[in-house]
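thought: fold this chain, then report.
action: predict
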Amino acid sequence: MSDLLKRLAYLQTRRDRTPNLDLARDLVARNDKAGIREIAENMWNENKNIHWDCVHVMYEIGVMEPNLISQYAEDFLKLLKSRHNNMVWGAMTALAEIAKVKPDFIFRHVDEIKKAKEAGSVITIDNSISALAHTAAANEEYNKAIFPYLLRHLSTCRPKEVPQHAERTLPAVNESNKDDFIKVLKKRNDDLSGAAFTRLSRIIRLAEKIA
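observation:
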């Protein structure tokens, strides 16, 4: 077992995930591509605890510097088919970050992202919206293909999900589509009250300022 893997939470017999986050921060700070490669390879470790810790380290790296994990996009896409829910949402979290720097890849696999979203957990759904929104933000072609899907989701998802998913959709909102976005949100605001209503109203105001 390498010294790098020994820093994983499971191998330190820790139940919290702090060691994984510390390792991710260290790898990013040192731009340690060899170390990141070792973690990526062990996303397929036969020990499911090491397997999961490595997925966790990788998506935490992605949150800080998505370019450092973008070359492993295919691995994350394969993990969307995992039987283990935490692997799926961990992979989708990584893909949401990769979408910021490699939207072409996500667009080529948009149907697989949608399929994982439709069958996924709450966290998987959340991050799939982000992955699609960042991809839609890349150019007009991608936006026209993806944005109507995001609007349909916002029109039909559970009321309590609307504010967060609207917020995650914001990167894809531009001057040409903001009116449709606002129209959907105003209609959904009728279903909300309290903090959720206030949060969605704030998102509407942000959208109105987009030029």
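thought: worth noting. The mean pLDDT is 96.
final: tokens above.
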